[in-house]
Amino acid sequence: MNNIVVIGSGVMGREIAYVSAVGGFITTLIDINENQLKQAEKEIQAIFEKGVARNKLSFAEMEEAKKRLTYSISLAKNVMEADLVIEAVPEVIEIKRNIFEVIDQHAKEHCIFATNTSTMSPTEIGSFTKRSDKVIAMHFFNPVHKMPLVEIVKGLETSEVTVISIRQAAEKMGKETVVINEFPGFVTSRISALVGNEAFYMLQEGVGTPEEIDKAIRLGLNYPMGPFELGDLVGLDTRLNNLKYLHEKLGEKFRPAPLLEQYVNAGRLGRKSGRGVYDYKEKRDE
Question: Which Pfam families has this protein been placed in (predicted)?
Fold first, then answer.
């Protein structure tokens, strides 16, 4: 496996492309939105520079990785050369269906398709193609260049050859892996969604302030960040979409807290919108 195409230049896609290029793969980051693609290039450059400043990689390693990384709005043309396509678009099944139907038409027969979903079914996504044995979930975590885990999720028809190939690719990117069988929410998303949702219920009930609840979880349970800090990082809209999906599939324990829905309806999505549970505009002004 030499050539990787990453589809979607949002927060997850751009960082997957970064670790792919640093890992030694020829990498193409694709997005139909040219402005977002340009913004992704700036963000990736900043990650490179921080990596060098913190001695995570040398200047020479940065320059070599940058040579392996290109940006494009052309999906079909680049997919033709890919050994692995990693889809990292929003968690909307129709968007994913459209992408997988297109790439299935243009990719070589040996090409593997991975979806960076945190909850959705790789079995269902595989059904959008004629190569369901080569479709798998490759769940990265935000921020990708710092988080060590990739959760590899097998669909009903995913072959063991595909699993082995994806595990090797993830390890080459410097990641630890776990391989699990498909079930809604996998392992990490089910636990994270429950904790984050319960925190919103506690906030709604007046149990404590966001700061106190986050501090209690960080120091009392040894989490690296509190549930509100994490929710603001990944996006409260993303958290809500995941909960709605898990509520539909797994029942009442995943019913979204009304306060979380209010925040999303108000446009308080987290860091990306400047305000979520916490106000990041104020912090930027300080």
Answer: 3HCDH (PF00725), 3HCDH_N (PF02737)
What torsion do the CA atoms of 249, 253, 259, 262 make, to the nearest 10 degrees?
A: 10
Token couple for 78? 């680049």
How does pLDDT run across 183-234, given as a tens digit for each residue? 888 898 899 999 999 999 999 999 999 999 999 999 999 998 999 999 999 8
CA 45, CA 225: separation in Å to the nearest integer?
26
d(CA 259, CA 202): 10
Q: For the segment 68-97, what is each residue's pLDDT rounded down to a tens digit?
A: 999 999 999 999 999 999 999 988 889 999
Can you give the pTM of this predicted structure?
0.84
Q: Which amino acid is present at 173?
A: M
Q: What would the two tokens of residue 72 be? A: 């494009």
Categorise residue 186: left if φ over 0, alpha if ψ from -120 to 50, beta otherwise.
left
CA-angle at 13, arms to 10 and 16, nearest 5°:
145
